[in-house]
Design brief:
The complex is a heterotrimer.
Chain A: H1 2-19, E1 31-35, H2 42-56, E2 64-68, H3 75-83, E3 90-94, H4 97-104, E4 114-124, E5 126-130, H5 138-147, E6 152-157, H6 162-174, E7 178-183, H7 186-194, E8 200-201, H8 205-213, E9 217-222, E10 257-265, H9 270-284, H10 287-295, E11 299-304, H11 305-326
Parallel strand pairs in A: 1-2, 1-3, 6-7, 6-8
Antiparallel strand pairs in A: 3-10, 4-10, 4-11, 5-8, 5-9
Helix pairs in contact in A: 1-9, 1-11, 4-11
Chain B: H1 2-14, H2 17-35, H3 41-52, H4 57-82, H5 91-102, H6 106-139, H7 144-158, H8 166-180, E1 183-184, E2 191-192, H9 206-224, H10 238-247, H11 252-267, H12 271-286, H13 298-314, H14 316-322, H15 328-339, H16 348-351, H17 353-382, H18 389-408, H19 411-429, H20 435-458, H21 469-504
Antiparallel strand pairs in B: 1-2
Chain C: E1 2-3, H1 4-27, E2 33-34, E3 37-38, H2 42-67, H3 71-74, E4 76-78, H4 80-103, H5 105-120, H6 125-147, H7 155-160
Antiparallel strand pairs in C: 1-4, 2-3
Helix pairs in contact in C: 1-2, 4-5, 5-6
Classes of the chains: A alpha/beta, B mainly alpha, C mainly alpha.
Amino acid sequence: MKRLCIAACLAAASFAVAAAPAAAWQPSKPIEFVVTSGAGGGTDNFARVIQSIITKHKLIEQPIVVLNKGGGSGAEGYVYGKGGKGEPHRVVFGTNNAYLLPYVAKLGYKFSDLTPVAALALDEFLIWVNGSAPYEDAQSYIEAVKAKPGSFKMAGSQSKDTDQTLTAMIQDATGARWIYVPFQGGGAAATQLAGGHVDSNTNNPNENIGQWKAGQVKPLCVFSPVRLAKSEPVHGGKGWGDIPTCKEAGLPIESFQMPRTVWLPADVPADAVAFYADVLEKVSKTPEWAEFIARTAQTGRFMKGKEFADFVAKDEAANAKVFKNEGWVVN
Amino acid sequence: MENFASLLHGFEVALTAHHVALMMAGVLLGILVGVLPGLGAPNGVSLMLPLTFTMDPVSAIILLTSLYWGALFGGSTTSILFNIPGEPSSVATTFDGHPMAKQGRATEALSFAFLSAGFGAMAGVILITLLSGWVARFALKFSSPEYFAVYFMTFASFVGLGGASPLKTIVSMAMGFALASIGMDSVSGNVRLTYEFDVLLAGVSFLIAVIGLFGLGELLQTMEEGLRFDGVKARVSPRDVLATALKLPRYWLALLRSSIIGIWMGITPGGPTAASFMSYAMAKRSSRRPEAFGKGEPEGVISPETADHAAGSSAMLPMLALGIPGSATAAVMMGGLMIWGLNPGPMLFVERPDFVWGLIASMYLGNVVAVVVVLATVPLFASILRIPFSIIGPAIVVVCFIGAYTVASKEFDIWLALAFGIVGYLFKKLDYPIAPLVLAMVIGDKAEDAFRQSMIFSQGSLSIFWSNPLVASLMAIGLALLLFPLIGSTRRGIRKLVTARAAKA
Amino acid sequence: MISRFQAEIATALATLAFGLVIVVGAREFGIGWDSSGPQPGAFPFYCGLLIALASLGTIATTVGRRMGGSAALAGIVLDREQAGRVLAFFLPMLAFVVLSVTLGMYVAMLLYLVFAMRFQGRFGWLPSLATALATAAFFYLGLEKFAQVGLLKGPVEAMLGL
């Protein structure tokens, strides 16, 4: 029921956007970019790169102030967004946690307190193992885990968040069992794997690239429907494009990706939503953006309106299913 | 030797007029940011970040690191003059730095702080130069049990210090731990102890606690005693700075010990805050007159400052070589590295030697520039204390509340700072120690996370804390630190008893 | 006016209450020890418990020493003159906080500094006003313009269009 409403509401919102004449609204004072992660986090980089592109190409006349509100896994930023009801000068940057957090923790906001604007990229997830581990493909690693259930360790950032969700999905799909160890962030998960303290992690490309270059970790497969874009070789002659998808590698998981999303508070003028969607679409077409996407090995995909709403509905359903199975849902 | 050649190359990169100008600008901005309340080094660096998007990475990192050094120095300044630590790592500097300032020895305290900080930073950089490869491999050995052991060591070195009532010490430290656990628990994904108040979602920042407990609490205390700052009597002349500098070599043992503690905590990585607390504790323990500490003992300023900066600069190594940011500021800089198109990690040294060695060379130069600049400003800052209290008192109040608000732009934090101010006043009045509370707030949640991660690793078995030589020796040092004062006091007690008996007999 | 004994007991009661609040809040998350170590509530629970027990201990020893006729405890911890000085500083500070959240921090800063300098420091109107305005301007330029950090603003800033 909840999902249906969200889809319908999003569709309605997108309809309103489509109907409004573009650029009828202009910011009249400095704009706040609210980042739902601490300084230096993935969302922080996302927002600051967009800020730098907007500034460089003068896409918005007003100055932009970036505010980090990463408390409560980002909930602090969304609650702050909720507090700006009807205020179109407050733009919130996040991931799919905008609509997933309220499932797993009692927080001071609901998804309906936010107005969807756009998504600009999909961050990818891979299975990584230590560089000296004897596994060359995902299948042989999964078999090894199945042979000794409960003794392999999977590192990830935070609890009941994307990494643990993905781990649960893999466990469901294959019957393998890990001990999931939550760390503060992807960086810690990467060094723990490089140091051989855990057996694998499901980090985003950007979180593990330094260790991969040094051969301390190696990727087994990527949870994307198609292979990643070709790139320069990273280590041992292999680049991002050479990593098989997990589906190819025999794991029955179609895809698992994390959208990089942008939101406004509830009850803002449809014109304002259209204005930001338009600016962000321009951002997504700049060479600087393409360079950022390539460097962090994300998949560039601009979504707004109906397309974004459909994506959110589908992503929410897939994640909610895992949350229910794992017993994480709080209300 | 190979490293030395690389360093020379680094100096070629860093020693251009353009870069030295950037260092000066960075240090000056940093001091401003450090002195301005609430704008600590992490904020300062993230504010400057957009300006660096168009620079080349070497210039950009030189600007940001110089700003960091400047902010660290600025933070010590406010600790000493107003008892308001600008950075968490300068909390320990207030213990003796502020009493010195109150006694009219502000110039001496500031000069000692700056000079020893510069010494510590140099020690850290030299270590990076010599041992970069080895340290990077060593830090990889650290997992959750080792982290916990490092935090345990810090606590252990600090417990049993000071003469406060043990019950009151427990109340203070446990309050710090409890406050630290408010908000998101990253191990379980639960939001704890918010009692459904949204304002508590992000937890209680220790910065707010520090502003209230130290800044406002101190002011109330000062008012009650009807005291004024004795700064009026302080002579302020550049000659005093020089005189202090000449006294510094006397403290060579403290400098050396604190540098080692700082470097160790920087690369392990316990961080600058833990380093400064631990160094202060060690100085007091090994001193021949521990009773002078807390009342304006120069060694109580030199030790934490040296360790703080040694840790701060050596912590750059794990950031560059492993991508582990040792502090909030390092995390922001890492974000910057990524935006400039660099990937921190073991290969950065191989792929971008220009950048890495340019940065290391700039750390030598930047710290020299920073020490010179701040020493030149000591007389200026020390003369702030000459301003009448009816101006400076309210001005500090304004500064404290501005600082509290700018930590997270939350109205609630203003009220929280006021509450902490009252708590600080009461605690001081009734001899509750405040330092354990702050220490517990700063590293309490990290220690808890590390402990619970270790328990997940071992599936609930405590034996993980002596499962390998590294963690076992760290734990052993921690236990020794914890038990020594107990043994010492029991032995003294027994001896007293024995002599009493002997006297009777 | 207030004896050390009263102050000790009141403070210990306050920390006792704080400890109990933590204990109650922590119980919600499980305080036991399972296969993956302590449950999320365990750590805060025992911290809360420790605070409560240590506070009770403080009360007990304080009462014990009082019965034993400790002179230090009977002594005055805050006399009328001291209380007056503390309040003279604390009340304007409280007013500053209240004004900050209602009128914005810049206006509160102006009023507070002028009040403290003119009526408590006995400076003339001119230096008081000049210092307050200069301070506010300094923070405005330094924070809003240079560092792009906003402070709480109220109706006056809105009127001036800042």
